[in-house]
Specification:
- The protein is an alpha+beta fold and 321 residues long.
- It has two domains: 52-163, 3-Layer(aba) Sandwich (NADH Oxidase), CATH 3.40.109; 184-303, NADH Oxidase (3-Layer(aba) Sandwich), CATH 3.40.109.30.
- The chain is 33% helix and 16% strand.
- It has helices at 14-26, 31-37, 52-62, 65-68, 83-86, 113-129, 143-149, 172-181, 189-192, 204-214, 258-275; strands at 77-82, 101-107, 157-163, 193-195, 225-231, 242-249, 280-282, 295-303.
- Strands 4-5-6-8-7 form a five-stranded mixed sheet.
- Strand 4 (193-195), helix 10 and strand 5 form a beta-alpha-beta unit.
- The longest helix is centred in the last third of the chain and has 18 residues, at 258-275.
- The model is unreliable at 1-6 and 311-321 (pLDDT under 50).
- The structure holds flavin mononucleotide.
- Residues 39-40, 95, 135-140, 217-221, 258-259, 262 line the site of flavin mononucleotide (FMN).
- Flavin mononucleotide (FMN) is lined by residues 39-40, 95, 135-140, 217-221, 258-259, 262.
- Pfam families: TM1586_NiRdase.
- Residues 37-269 form the Putative nitroreductase TM1586 domain.
- InterPro entries: Nitroreductase-like, Nitroreductase/BluB, TM1586_NiRdase.
- Belongs to the nitroreductase family.
- This is Nitroreductase family protein.
């Protein structure tokens, strides 16, 4: 990735970056700020165990049907496990210290990993908003110990875990600032994302959603996701420009997709919060060329005009922005 500090970096204008900085410091965090400040926490503060009310809040959240359901309908079982339920050393190989609580994702044999990534990351970002540290993990833990501890049926297994707790040395703000100012441990924007020349405007909503996707986590930080932005064919009766955002993966294995699901979640959460609409997803490849060695996974189509009402005291606005 070269000399990150000196390369052309963020697609935000200097004014946008400054405004985002001050929002981060002053206000309640929105989805974009949350996605940009999340990082993998491996050392937790053992003197600050999770309070019962926080555990209850998490359990209430992960038991909601819409939280556990992926964008194409796959259900993922989510559970909070205490160390004592798992037993043994957990197989986290001393990588994780200072917490006894783990979020686990239980899946059936033919689960779509794109959806599993989407659902698990939704919870990870929710935990980030609660001030908690997390680390999405699919490798460095004992799958059999966790599968047993979670009481899985013979056709189920624990696919992913995340420790949950308060970071020993919280670095959210440092990470946020680095991500806003540099390509902090990520591909350059131009390598991650290709914008078709017919897309002449670059609305801030779109840039924020793409940035949230670029800084999403991936296994071994391999960053296999690539995004292609084109204009969508106009919808009859609509004056709004619609965009098509296609997600591909640097892999030809059909069973992959977890990292793309995570990037998709980051993109969609920011878009939904900023525009008030979810857009439409499709697994049919639009007419775009994907380079060899990459596989098309999913595309999002929608308008980027904001339908979000600014204030509840005002009558509904008749026009979108
Ligand atoms: C699907 C997935 C699997 C991962 N598995 C592991 C793991 O087994 N062990 C680990 O320590 N970190 C794991 N990570 C964390 C990544 O190493 C980390 O997200 C990446 O290096 C980017 O760093 P960041 O999360 O701090 O932005 C995983 C992340 C993802 C998304």
């Amino acid at each position: 990735m070269g000399n990150e500090a000196s390369t052309a970096i963020s697609p935000f204008s200097a004014e946008d970056a400054q405004s985002l900085q001050s929002q981060y410091k002053s206000s309640q965090k929105d989805c974009f700020l949350t996605a940009m400040e999340r990082y993998s926490v491996r050392s937790y503060d053992s003197t600050r165990p999770l309070p019962e009310d926080v555990i209850k809040q998490i359990n209430d959240y992960i038991s909601q049907e819409d939280v556990c359901t992926g964008p194409f309908g796959t259900k993922v079982k989510l559970s909070l496990l205490e160390r004592s339920k798992v037993g043994g050393s957990l197989g986290t190989f001393k990588i994780i210290s200072g917490t006894d609580v783990f979020l686990v994702a239980i899946i059936g044999e033919s689960a779509d990993l794109l959806e599993v990534g989407y659902v698990f990351e939704k919870v990870i970002l929710h935990l980030t908003t609660l001030g908690l540290g997390t680390c999405f993990m699919t490798g460095t833990f004992s799958g059999s110990d966790f599968t047993k501890g979670a009481g899985c049926s013979p056709t189920e297994k624990v696919y992913a875990i995340s420790p949950v707790g308060y970071a020993k040395t919280p670095e959210h703000q440092v990470i946020f600032e680095k991500r806003l100012a540099t390509n902090h441990r990520r591909l350059a924007f131009s390598e991650f994302c290709t914008v078709d020349p017919t897309v002449t405007e670059r609305p801030l909503n779109l840039i924020k959603a793409l940035e949230a996707a670029r800084f999403s986590p991936s296994a071994l930080n391999k960053q296999p996701t690539r995004i292609y932005v084109t204009k969508a064919a106009p919808t009859e009766g609509s004056d709004n420009t619609e965009y098509c955002v296609s997600f591909a993966e640097k892999s030809t294995k059909p069973e992959c997709g977890v990292d793309v699901g995570i990037s998709l979640l980051h993109f969609m959460q920011v878009i939904e919060e900023l525009t008030g609409t979810k857009g439409e997803l499709s697994k049919t490849q639009p007419s775009i060329t994907i380079p060899s060695g990459f596989t098309f996974r999913v595309s999002w189509k929608g308008s980027l005009s904001s339908q979000v009402q600014q204030s509840t005291d005002q009558p509904p606005a008749s026009d979108s922005e």
